[in-house]
Amino acid sequence: MQKRTAHQIADVLIEALPYIQRFKDKTIVVKFGGNAMVDEALKHSFARDIVLMKLVGLNPIVVHGGGPQIGQLLAKLGKTTGFIDGMRITDSETMDVVEMVLGGLVNKEIVNLINMHGGKAVGLTGKDGDFIRARKLLIDNRETNLSPEAQATEIIDLGHVGEVASIDPAVLNMLGNSDFIPVIAPIGVGEDGHSYNINADLVAGKVAEVLKAEKLILLTNTAGILDKQQQLLTGLTLKDIDDLIADGTIAGGMIPKTRCATDALKGGVNSVHIIDGRVEHAVLLELFTDQGVGTLLLSRPR
Question: How many Å is the Cα radius of gyration of the chain?
Fold first, then answer.
């Protein structure tokens, strides 16, 4: 190893030290999605990030999505599904596929990757220990982008699409206080005993709220929240977010993600990070370096 390289490594470790000290024994909820879930190099770098976090004393909890993988299997089966405001209409047959993909294929792949890199991951859905209780998500037609002709009723029933009714933290606390790393598929169970597919961002946010997590980290396919000149914004507060939505800077698919972030902040999470999942080791860079790789959101200015 060349002397210069050795000094560079030492500099990196010294820069990381105060962050490691600050976040030791703290819960960090990470929503895993986007390109990071389909690119092989990014999948492995993410798994190594999670293992390192656990080894230096943090308590990482992973919540993952899997929309593209669900779509691919449905296509192979010859089943078509519609979408309303980005949410898949999910009948009973589609829900079977969702459970197979999220609770099986995707969840176990992430668990296996973390274990391959020296961690001890445990895969869960909200049905395990009954820890995610769900209720059916109903959409007011007046709040959708459907044409008037398509709005046959005032309320749209998406089938087995749900929202979080409550979360029991007992299972997560038990795993988090041990050497295990929970990996959660966003499937809940309703009072009717039926399974419901829930948006992974929402599940991650609610888990972070219930556990009073130090941080919620949302991986995306963008650099973070951008201004109208496409420059990265960071150090945003709740008021900043409201203003950026009002003037149209935050729009489209970034609105529900930022709403999830603001709900988490209001629920007691110390900070939320919307980061670029296309960057290798994005989680470590955001946690343990001065510069970071995304947008930091806070409830109030530091």
Answer: 20
What are the structure tokens assigned to 164, written together? 């979080």
Residues 204, 211: contact at Cβ < 8 Å? no
For the segment 25-72, what is each residue's pLDDT rounded down to a tens digit?
999 999 998 778 888 999 999 999 999 999 999 999 999 999 889 999
Residue 189's beta-bridge partner residues?
A: 133, 195
Q: Would you tell me how many other CB atoms lie within 10 Å of the CB of residue 75? A: 11
Q: Considering only the C-alpha atoms of the chain, give the largest distance between any 2 of them, rounded to a whole number of Å.
A: 71
Q: Is 163 in contact with 198 (CB distance < 8 Å)?
A: yes
pTM of the shown model: 0.91
Distances (CA, A) of 45 to 36, 116, 267: 9, 12, 30
Q: Cβ neighbours of residue 195 under 8 Å, at least 6 residues apart? A: 95, 98, 99, 127, 160, 187, 188, 189
Residues in the chain: 302
